[in-house]
Amino acid sequence: MSAAETDDIDAVPARRPARWHIAVFLAPAFLVYTAVMILPLIETLRLSFFNVVAGQMQFVGLSNFQTLFGDPRLSADFWNALRNNVIFFIIHMLVQNPIGIALAAMLSIPKLRFAAFYRSAIFVPTLLSFVIVGFIWKLILSPIWGIAPWLMDLVGMKWAFAPWLGKPETALVTVSLISVWQYVGIPMMLIYAALLNIPDEVLEAAECDGITGWSQFWKIKLPLILPSIGIISVLTFVGNFNAFDLIYTVQGALGGPNGATDILGTLLYRTFFGFQNQMGDRSMGATIATVMFLIILAGVSLYLFVIQRRMRRYQF
Amino acid sequence: MSNARTAPVRTALIHLALLSYTVIALFPVFLTVVNSFKSRAAIFREPMAVPTPATFSLIGYETVLKQGDFLGYFQNSMIVTIASIALVLLFGAMAAFALSEYRFRGNLLMGLYLALGIMIPIRLGTVAILQGMVATGLVNTRTALVLVYTAQGLPLAIFILSEFMRTVSDDLKNAGRIDGLSEYSIFFRLVLPLVRPAMATVAVFTMIPIWNDLWFPLILAPGEATKTVTLGAQMFIGQYVTNWNAVLAALSLAIMPVMILYVIFSRQLIRGITAGAVK
């Protein structure tokens, strides 16, 4: 990566032999980024092949991964966290993105009054920290305060209320929906931007052909915003498989009740740091981080090399 | 537009839908702030009511300010966030300028290398980051957080800023060169002032995840002296779970700075997003 220091070859080498300013401009960002992000990442990947054997750090090949995937104690936790994480992601894709698209489609209607107000208001939860969001919803859903049962009574649904966060069957869905509530602003904004970028001529042409309203959305606008939907999906994927804060705040590091909301982020935290009577384990922590890295890398590559390539982009 | 007769009904339905979702988005925040100003009995008896002189109480805020060092937490959050944003903007703009202005061998490779961090979260390197911070004695310092957040913010900043810098006119820069300006003066005196709007967008994008982060403060700087507001609120609430006044007050205190900044910067933020800065 010493590209910054090299002289120009394809520019005019005769007049400006050494352009040190390029290196000076690049150096601070390159150094901080490399030292604090890339090297630790590589070191973490490397650590996943090492473990303490007889009091000494030794290269153990893939045995950490074998433990993670096969050891009866740890692997149960791991597979559980992975499954929960997949469900967490699926709920986001099924709920967050359609709602975001619907909101953006409504906001982008020309000459809609108060559009700016709606847009700013709906984006508010996205700005709040997970800690705030988590605790607010914990209070609202708490049977002690009784806000949620009271609200459901308004629509005659009080019988359906249950302490959702406390029951293993419903806890994961509830936490996912809280996260959806918080993050719906991001797909909304990005889709909104994509919809605004569709030129008027295209829509006018559609109207001349008698394509308006619903069918205009499905036939004209949706295909044009597909690239943005792809980006949102990959952002959601990366965000979900590296989520931690919300679960930690709402359900604690154990991802309670009974591991029902344990995801890879909380598992990494517990394994690396230790929690209650579990000892912290650096090597296994690095192993879990490596698995998360591979999952995210796989998702991003799938997007970059398969989905994005096949997607048709329209240039206006 | 074309079918004028159904338009009012359709518009009304759309307003209804958007308004309902606005209520869903704002209601929890409203509920928290409103109830933080009420006495304990009123919180439970009439959670929906706005505080009246009879139910108004600041007991929650008193507890928070007495028990937790919230002013200190705010200060830490401010210092960490501002320092990180300043470094991200300065280093990011310099690197973006180098990448967008000069042709040199490895330019594309360097661009890709610096863009890796947009997709790969820095959190995955936590194990080794902590190790490095322990080795350099930076654990429980704000410097550790600033370094991590600078590294975290740089990739997106470089990406956005280099897109903007490509739009700065070449004639202007060449005129500067003919007038004998050094490359550094061209960057600081000609280009930087022109990309100021993009810098503001990047600042807002960088700020939100830093201010809200729980993971790195929890791991790198959990000490009392370096706690950020997010971590401080988290721990305080964990301790005072049954003291509803205090919990609601702490939440409201944590919400307020974000809301104030949002009111000031919301235009900048929304314009930044909708201008297609993030694609």
Automatic annotation (TrEMBL), chain A:
Superkingdom of the source species: Bacteria
Protein name, UniProt field: Sugar ABC transporter permease
Organism of derivation: Oryzicola mucosus
One Pfam family from the record: BPD_transp_1
Keyword Transit peptide: no
Keywords: Cell membrane, Membrane, Transmembrane, Transmembrane helix, Transport
Gene Ontology BP, a term: transmembrane transport
Gene Ontology CC: plasma membrane
Membrane-protein topology: Multi-pass membrane protein
Keyword Transmembrane: yes
Chain segments annotated as transmembrane: 20-42, 86-109, 121-151, 171-195, 224-244, 284-306
Compartment(s) where it occurs, according to its Swiss-Prot or TrEMBL record: Cell membrane
Entry's family note: Belongs to the binding-protein-dependent transport system permease family.
ABC transmembrane type-1 domain: residues covered: 82-305
From TrEMBL, chain B:
GO biological process terms, semicolon-separated: transmembrane transport
Superkingdom field: Bacteria
Record-linked SUPFAM superfamilies: MetI-like (SSF161098)
PROSITE patterns, per the entry: ABC_TM1
Membrane topology annotation: Multi-pass membrane protein
The ABC transmembrane type-1 domain, residue ranges: 74-265
CDD domains linked to this entry: TM_PBP2
Keyword annotations of the record: Cell membrane, Membrane, Transmembrane, Transmembrane helix, Transport
Protein name: Carbohydrate ABC transporter permease
Record organism: Oryzicola mucosus
